Amino acid sequence: MRTIVDLPAEQVESLDAWCLAEGVSRAEAVRRAVAEHLRKHHASGAKRAFGMWKDMAEDGLAYQERLRSEWAARERDFS
Hints:
Elements: H1 9-22, H2 26-41, H3 45-49, H4 60-78
């Protein structure tokens, strides 16, 4: 797929210097940059979720029980 990307002149100059040093085209350099960005920043859902409770003051079971107690209170209100 083709796309148009606008870059500031300073980035184009740096990109061209890198491309010359690496012996690749601008297009290849951009493909590599996008691939690297996606590899670093798009972890799977499981990887993003792993450890999400580590900094929480309340543990997962206490949180679950607190939420369920709210449901029970609402159920009593409608009975």
